[in-house]
Model the fold of this input.
Amino acid sequence: MYGKEKTIKKVILADLDSKDNTLKILKEFRKENKEVNVSSWKECKEIMDIIDDTTE
Done:
């Protein structure tokens, strides 16, 4: 858990360009769990690079 949160507010799941049904499964899981966000590895890396640039 990050900080002092008592409940999970957001979860990001990244698909690492899998060749199976992972992305489809994650998107189905998202429908039932609104705190979950599904992202591609490329999108996730771009976000992390932006965060790294702002913390230097």
